Structures are given as structure tokens and as C-alpha cells.
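Continuing the batch. This is chain 6 of the set; chains 1 through 5 are on the previous pages. Same settings as before, nothing changed between runs. Recording input and output for traceability.
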Amino acid sequence: MATFLYKLGRLAFRRRHFVALVWVALLTLAGVGAASAPPAGNTSFSVPGTEAQKAFDLLEQRYPGMSADGATARVVFKAPDGEKMTDKANKATVRKTVKELQSGSEVASVADPYAGHAVSKDGTIAYASVKYKVSGMELEDSARDALKDAGQDARQAGLTVEIGGDALTATPETGSSEVIGIAIAAVVLVITFGSLLAAGFPLLTAIIGVGIGVSTITALASALDLGSTTSTLASMIGLAVGIDYALFIVSRYRAELAEGREREEAVGRAVGTAGSAVVFAGLTVVIALVGLSVVNIPMLTKMGVAAAGTVAVAVLIALTLIPALLGYAGRRIKPAGEKSRLLGGGRTPKKPGRPNMGTRWASFVVRRPVAVLLLGVIGLGAAAIPAASLELGLPDDGSQPVSTTQRRAYDLLSEGFGPGFNGPLMVVIDAKDSDHPKTAFTKVGDEIKGLKDVVTVTPATPNKAGDTATITVVPDSKPSSTTTEDLVHAIRDKGADITSATDAKVLVTGSTAMNIDVSQKLNDALLPYLALVVGLAFLLLIVVFRSILVPLKAALGFLLSVMAALGAVVAVFQWGWLSDLMNVEETGPVMSMMPIFMVGVVFGLAMDYEVFLVTRMREAYVHGEKPGQAVVTGFRHGARVVTAAAVIMIAVFSGFIGSSESMVKMIGFGLAVAVFFDAFIVRMAIVPAVLALLGKRAWWLPRWLDRALPNVDVEGDGLRTDADRGPGPGQERELVRA
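Output for chain 6:
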């Protein structure tokens, strides 16, 4: 591996014009493809295997044109003080709004509040239900705009008008957060390298990689049914790893220059050593992202595969375009320890030869490994305690900020009709195999009325064939509560008894039931996903480090940091700790996608830091240093770079904490905290402490396994022999001595 990458790096350095031209051509080709591709709508959302999805599919068959999974909206009206919604003027205003709503091309139906008894008992609140032909994720922006504008006349007439429902669901905008993250990354890179030019390379190549990845996704969106949400994860992860990988190679290149090597040789050795770490770090990220397919949610699978492709592009750019750009830069890229003139270069250091911060910290950990290990494990263990009371769910309008119309509509409906009115359940009765369908329909309704937490049960509404019926159930508790979840399970348990008695199948669906099923599906997939990702990465790291204990330590450390991060998320978003500081207006269940999403993203980044830091230690150990000294050497060369990479990632993710969307805020906070825990406590403290305690045993591998494994030579030991056949005898002897 190291030998091949060494040759690739030197080739890219020499053929820099050709390499740069290839990447510019790829970027142009992807851009042209994206610009000329037919526009793709939002991807359809389905969750195969869940009861709620089976019910939706059944309704599509038995109720043609019903659009069972179509988007819904509720336009809520409240009369001014002293007036009623049943007043003549208010009725006329509402009916005018209903007529405007019916004009949309994607609108399936609009229910008049006065014809459908949708007026509260005190007469102050009414609502119009809007049903669309397509799901909320497929709804055109023009339809959303028409929905928002429909209540303007009513507002001018003095009514309070708020709009709720999944029809207003849209992909959160994250552009400003990405700009903030890139700006902070630029500052950190300039401080790390002491050079504007060297700092610019990781940013430039990361942006090129993300541009190629996102443009390719856009170009293929229509053909592969990739929605607008698919590129979100790809751009975020692509930007993160693109900066990291380029940072690793540029840093190693400057270190090679500092040892006196010629620039082409330094590029070759940087790509051969740091590039090997990049390849295997990239493979772990790809494994984590492609592994999202085990959840069996098509949208999540597409997001993972698209992001994995962007990561692969980032790896290739780091291995080829970075060497080419270093060739263009020439002597303007200074050796490690030197700054450009603009940033104070050329000055004599006050204390020449003083160990850097990484060296001093590693030396301290090697002297006090037990204390550092205990402190790190106990600290992360304490942070993980709240994770024991983790409750999962999907956000609804009740979790929105009070400044949004969705939240205000939610509160008005709760005030007028009760909290459960915001999350009605749809019970579907399939009586095709029953001898007495009408009896089954009646029995289901009677059984549900006898359950706890039920406010309203509507009469069964059969289809034309009379073999299927729907019943709407309004719970007494809000949609995201555990009480409502218990009611869904209770109805399904009753359905099993009804099936045995009448041969009619009972299915529970609706947005609330779908949220419950998705949460359960994600929860059930978490352990298999962890086993797959950690297991494959464990095998990969055995090949990289030629050790059993080092990959085991890496996996256990990652699990510890993820549990601690989940504990922090529970403490803030579920318990309400620091909620004012984080601007969390509504506490509640943690988003069900959060654990598996955090595992996938953070595992990839954590293994980046692990591979880059520990391969430096193994390199020193293989070249003859004692285990403790190898740890210090690894930190001397790698700690500054890993710290910079972690700070950049924390800054990028923290930018999302300011979002008004609770889901985006939670993701940003969780990922930022997880990277902080993993980079600075696990990789910077626990890892060197464990390696110091293990000594030579850390690098032990059974002989039979050593013979069976391929020798990928990540530490670049084979480069000494290959370099002997390089430019000249003088340099050959220098490389042998090194």
C-alpha cells in the first residue's frame, strides 16, 4: 500500500498539469450534468415492513385516489375576543379562504369547518382540513406558498390564522451554518500551518470534492429518485473528511520537508504514509455510511450511499490533487515549524528545541497512565448516565419553536379540541376474508371505545366494495407522549383478538403511528448496525495496525464517547439542562434517528483520528522506538493535526445549534459533543494511557494471523528500500539512516 501510494504521490507531483486538468474536467462534467438533468422532486418516503406502511399500501389499493399517505394541513382560525367563529361575517371569511385553498393543483380535498363540525364547543376556534395528493416530502414549494398565503384575507378581517400539519415540512436551510464552519476552519488551518497558502489547500480540495459529489447526486437525482435531502448528509460529511484528509497529507509533507527531503520525495513519502492512513480512515467512513442500509429505510440508505460516494471522492482528491497542488506551490509551502513572512515567518524562535504541546502532554500521560485512564473513563461514564433514560420519538409540531405558525396552530387545536387532536390515529379494518364485514367494523369501534386515553371514535367508513373500512381515533394525550404510544399498542393488541374472532385484520396508521413505527424500527436496527460497522472496522484495523488490542481499544473507546454524547443529548433535550443556553423551547423525546445517525457519522470521524494518530505511533515502534517513546513520537507529529481537525469539525457541527429547527439543533449539538469527547478525551487521553500500560503487548498479533493477513505497510517501512532506488546515492543513504 505505502509503496503504491508513494509512487502515485510522486507521479501526481510530476504530472501536476494533467492531474489538475482531470479534476477540473470531472468538476465541470458533474456541474454540466447537474445543470442539464431534469429537476427531481422530493424523494418519496416509505418505511417497508412497518404496520403503518402496510396500512397505507392497503388504503391505496382499496380506496383508489384517496392518497392515504398524502400531506395534510390544518388551517386554524380563532375569533377575536367577544366574537364567535359561527358569526355570519366570520363564516363568510372562512369559506372564502376554503375556496382559495381548493384551487391548488395538488390539493385533493378541503373540508369546510361548518360542514364537518370542526368548530370548538365554545365556538372560538375552527379549522379547515386540507388533504393533498402527494406526501409532504413530494409537495411542490408553490403549493406550500399558496397554503401560507391563503389566510391573509382572514387575518385582515381580524381573525387569528395559523397553519399546522406535515404539508409545511421542508428541508431546513443549512447554507449559513456551512459558511460559518468553513470560516472557522480557515482560521484554524492558518494557525495550524502558519501559512495562508498551505491552509487554503484543504479548503479548496474539500470544496472541489463536495462540488463533484453534490453535483453528481443532483445529476442522478431524477433517475435514481434522490430527493433534495439526499445531498445534505453528503455535503456535511464530504466537507468534514475532505478537510481532514488534505490536512493530514499537507501536514506530513511539511514534516518531511523539515527532515531535509527534496519536495518530490517529501510528497511521495507523505502520500505513502499519511495517504495510507487516509485510505483506511476513508474505508471506515464508507463502511459506516453504507451500513445505514441495514435499517431498511430507502431514504436513509440513499443518503448513506451518496455520502459514501462523496467520501470516496475526498480520498481520491487527497491522494492525487493535493500532491499536484503542492507541486504548483513549490517553495512557498514551508517546512513544519516555519511560518510564512506574512504571518511572522523568518523570526528566530525564543526557545529553540522546546518540545511542542503534544510531546509534553504525551510524556505526562505516559508517566501517569492509570490516573489519566481512570479520570477519562469515569468522566465519560458520568456523562453517559442520562442515556439510561433515553426516550426516542420523532418531532411533531408541538416541538417547534413558539414563534412558528405550526406551533401556534398546534397550541390552538389543543386549546379548542384537546392535545390528542393533533395526532389522530387511523384504524384500517381489512375484512376481505371475513364472513361478516359490518359486524367486524362495529366490533372494532366498540372495542376501541373501551380503551383508556380515547376521547373520540368516529363511525367506520367503508369503501365501495364494503370489504375495508377506516375509523379515526382521537387520543386524550399529545402525539409524542408515551401514553399515545401505549394506546397504539393497545389497539393493535385488541386487533389480534378481533382477527381470531372475525378473520378481519386491524391495522393502525396515520402520522402518529408512523412516527412510532419508525422509532421502533430505528431502535431495533441500532444493535445490528453497531455490530456490522464496528465488526467490519475492527477487522480492517487489525490489518492496518497488525494488532488485536489496538483495534479493540479503538472500538471500545468509540462506544464510550457515543454513549457519553447521547447522555449529553438526553440531559439537554429531554431533561432540559442548559435549555435556556441552547435555546431549547420544548423538551421531549430524543429524535429516533439520532443514535444511529450519531453512530454512523461519529464512528467515521473517530476512526480518522485513531488511524492517523496511532499509525504514527506504530511507525515509530516499527522503526525501533520503545512503546512509551513511540506514543510520545506519535503525539509530537500528530497531536496538532488531530486537534485542528477536531476543532474544525466541532465548529462545523456547532454552527447547526443555532437553527430554529429542533431536529437540526439536536443533530448539531450531538455531533459536536461526540467529536469533542472522542477526539480530546478518548483519542488524546485514554488511547495513549492504554498504550502506555500495554507496552509491547499492544502490538501483539498471533503468528498464524500475522502470516495470513496482507501486509499493507501503513507505516511506510517499505519506502526505505524503494527510496534506495530513487533519485541518487546521497539521498538513498539519507533515507536508510532515517
